[in-house]
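Contributing: when you submit paired examples, paste them exactly as shown. First protein:
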Amino acid sequence: MAKQPLRPAPAAAAPLARDAISAEVRRLGPWFHNLDLGGVATAPDHFLGDYPRSKWKAFSGSIPADLTGKTVLDLGCNAGFHAIEMKRRGAARVVGVDSDDDYLAQARFAAAVSGVELELVNLSVYDVARLGERFDLVLFLGVLYHLRHPLLALDLLREHVVGGTLVVQSLLRGDDCTPRLADDYPFSERQIFEEPGYPRMCFVEDRYAGDPTNWWIPNRACLAAMIRSAGFTITAHPEAEVFVCELAQRAGEGA
C-alpha cells in the first residue's frame, strides 16, 4: 500500500485581521480545542474550561522544553493544540494525524495563524504503519477510550511508529489505586478480581457524556497494565490521566 501523503499546513503570508480570524473560526466550528488565535478564542465556553490548555499545564513539564531536531507524531491531533506546542518547542517535524477532516481543517488554519508548519494527514490509528517511519516522540492524548480495540492500537504504535517516548492520556473512571499483584493466580482464585484497584475497563454499549464514540473507559491500574503489556515502561505519571512511557523489551524479543 502506498505511503499516505503528508500535507504541510503553510504559515500565513501575512497576519490576518482579528475580524477575519473570527469569521473563519465561526465557519470552521464547532471546536473542541480552545485555541488562542490572534486573540480569538475558538471554544471559550468549553464544558471543561480552558481545554486542553488547562490539562496541558499539568504535564507539559514532562516533555522536553527543547525538541530541536526531534520528530513528533500527534495521534488524534484534533485542532492542533499539542502539535503547535511541539513546534514552538523547536521540533524539526510535527505530523498531526486525525480521522476527522473537520478537525484537520481547524488544525490547518490554526497552524497558519500561529505561523508554524504542520504535516497533517487523515488516517486511522489502526493504519499507522502507512506512515512508514518511527518518531522520537508520539503523543496519544484523548484517543484510547474512543477506540473499539484500544490494546490493538497500543500494539500497533509500538510496532510501527514509536521510536522513543510515548505519552498516553485517557479518560479514567473507577478506582485510582494501583495494588501490587502477583504474576499468576490459581484457577480457584476469585476474590482478587473484586479487590479495589484491580485492573478493569468498563464497556460503553451506547454512549457516555452524549458521545457514541466513548467505547472503553479503564481505571488507572488497567491503563498502566495495558501500557506495560504493549511493551512500554512507564517512566513518569505527571497527571492523573497521563503516562509517559519508553520502549521496553518484550519477552521473546532479541536484545
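Second protein:
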Amino acid sequence: MWGKLKYQLTLHLIIFIWGFTAILGKWIEADAFVLVWYRVIIAFFSLLIFLIILRRKLVIQSSSNAWKTLGVGVLVALHWLTFYVSIKESTASLAIICLATTTIHVSWLEPLIMKRKFLWSELVLGVIIIGGILLITGNTTGEQNMIGIAFGLLSAILAASFSVFNARLIQDVTASKITLYEMFSASVVMSLFLLLSPSFTLNNLLISSNDIYLLLFLGIICTSVAFLITVEITKFLGAFTVTLSINMEPIYTLGLAALFLGEHQELSTWFYIGASIIVGAVFGNAILKYQQRKKLKKAIS
C-alpha cells in the first residue's frame, strides 16, 4: 500500500510542477518563439545527458519509425509555440482551460488514425466541452483574449495529434527514444523558424538572467526530469491511473495562476462555470473509458 501511495504522491508532485509551465509562460519575458526555442534546446540536451548517464540506448533502429518520430516532433514544437502564444496574448488560466480540451480531440482523432470504432459517448462529451468553451468565450472581453483562446484551442488539437501518433509509435519504440528524437526535431524546427524570420537577429536570443533560471527550470525540471520520472511511475501505477491524474493539471494551474498572477481578479463567474464543465467532462471521459475497459476484460474472461 505504501509503495503505491509513494508513487501517487510523486506523480501529483510532477503534475503540480507541470502546472507551473503556464505560469512560467507569463513570468518569462522572452517572446513565445524564443521561449519555446530555449525550452526544446534545453530539454533535448538535458534529456540526452540523463539517458547517457542511465546508459539507455539512444538510436531507433527502424528508419521508418525514426522519420515518423521526427515528424511528430514538429507537431510538439507547434503545440508548445501555440500554447505559449495563447498565454502571452491572454492569461495562463484561459490557455490551460483551452488545453484541457485535448482529451476530446483525441476521441475523434483516434478512430481516424488508430482505425478504432467511433464512440457516440465521446461525441456527447465533446458537445458538453464546446458548451463550456462557449460560456468562457461568450463572457470574455478583449481582442487579445479571443486571440489567446484561438491559439489555445489550436494548441489542444496539436497536442491531441502528437498524443495519438505517439500511441502508435510506443508500440515499437521506447518512450525515452521517442521523446529524445521529438525534442531534437522540435529544436531544429524552432531554429529554422527563428532563422527564417525577417526580423530575427542574434540579439533576439539575448535574455535576462531571470529568464535563464526560469527556462532552465522549465526545460530540465518540467520537461526532462518530469518525463523520466513519469515513465518510471507508469510502470507501477499503469497508464490509465497516470492519464486520469494528469487531468488535475488544469486545476493546479488555475490555483497557481490565482495565487501568483492574481488572474482570479480578471476572470468572471462564467469562466469558472465553463472551466468546471470542461474539467468535469475530461474526468467523465476518463471514468467512462475505465468502465469500458472493465466490461471488455469481463467479456474476454
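If you have annotations for the second protein, write them as plain sentences, like these:
The chain has a mean pLDDT of 83.
The longest helix spans residues 269-300.
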